[in-house]
Amino acid sequence: MRRLQRIFQDKPFLHLIDRGERLVAKLLAVMLFLVLVVAAIKFSVELLFQLVDPAVRWEGEGLIAVLGDLLNLLIAIEVLQNITSYLRRHVVQIELVLLTAITAVARKVIVLPPNAENKPMLVVGLGVAVLCLAAAFWMVRQVNEREAIEREVREREELARRGPARSFQAAGHSPAVGADGPH
């Protein structure tokens, strides 16, 4: 009973949850990596067969389908990068998540069906999504850059405080020497 009580104290409990999160993230990364490898092989094989087939048309719908499949693979790679970034830094990097979302919306725009102009709400919705994601990315980037600058200033100030003291002689000044030089 005491052991169970000890596990549910804040520090051991959070440690247990942290280990569980990391384990789940690792499992997801392995599964996604396997899916990516299989999907990339399948995509490559299908593409090779289509390249040698003279009946396949590469303009219009054929090209759009290939681009859609390729972008799906790139989105999956970005999701894998999100997971591995979480494992490295133990935080979700919002910039990566937003870039993945922007790529996903861009994919949707690229592979729009030919009659998409007949669906104005779809086009407007995608446009609003692009604008919102771009604005969110810009705001996050501004905050991150500001924090990076502030961190750099703090580090420089800390180095200046801890660094060796400079002598007046090394700087070309001496309290024994007047402003007009030695006499």
UniProtKB/TrEMBL annotation:
Transmembrane segments annotated in the record for this chain: 23-43, 122-140
Pfam families: PsiE
Signal sequence region: none
Disordered, as annotated region: 160-183
InterPro entries: P_starv_induced_PsiE-like
Localization in the cell: Cell membrane
Membrane topology term: Multi-pass membrane protein
Keywords: Cell membrane, Membrane, Transmembrane, Transmembrane helix
Keyword Isomerase carried by entry: no
The protein's name: Phosphate-starvation-inducible E-like protein
The species this protein was found in: Aphanothece cf. minutissima CCALA 015
Organism lineage string: Bacteria, Bacillati, Cyanobacteriota, Cyanophyceae, Oscillatoriophycideae
